Amino acid sequence: MQSDNNEPILNTNLKAILVVSITFVIVSLVLFKNLFFQSTFLLKTFGELSIDPEIAFNNDKPTFLEFYAEWCEVCKEMAPKISVLKEEYERDINFVFLNVDNQKWDNYIRKFEVNGIPQVNLFDKKGNLISTFIGKQEEIKIKNSIDQLVREAESHEKVLNPEFSVIKENYNNMVSPRTHG
After folding, report:
1. 94-99 and 63-68: which strand pairing?
2. What span, in angstroms and rounded, lies between the C-alpha atoms of 67 and 129?
3. Which of 135, 129, 179, 177 is nearest to 149 (CA)?
């Protein structure tokens, strides 16, 4: 008889623990949704705001090209680091993100022989492939490669003597009302 009396108390306690646990999980997901889903959101944003590859390869800027998938855990893990690099370098470098699940990019997937994701390809400003990284990479490794790419692009820029651009006034030939021109 004692076990019959304990069963309802045990069931009530289990139900209370279950309700508290479910509530905790839901509240955690709501409060920390950006933390849990930030990487997936970043990947979607990368793809939506990406420069078209044809424009990137023809605008005389180095190009960072990443092949990714929204379901790829390593891509999600690297997304916040890539986002920081993008913010730092987007004035100097084209950032192109191609989702391997989008058939629109099949020709690029074949052209650059993508056989693992994420795959990052770095191109100089003339569109020549300089580096390829496949899989998880340390941020510093990619940053160093981007720095080198930017330095090379800057060193190849034409340096013009600003004196040739300045229009100097020639005071020897000034016309005044008293001269006969």
Report:
1. parallel
2. 15
3. 129
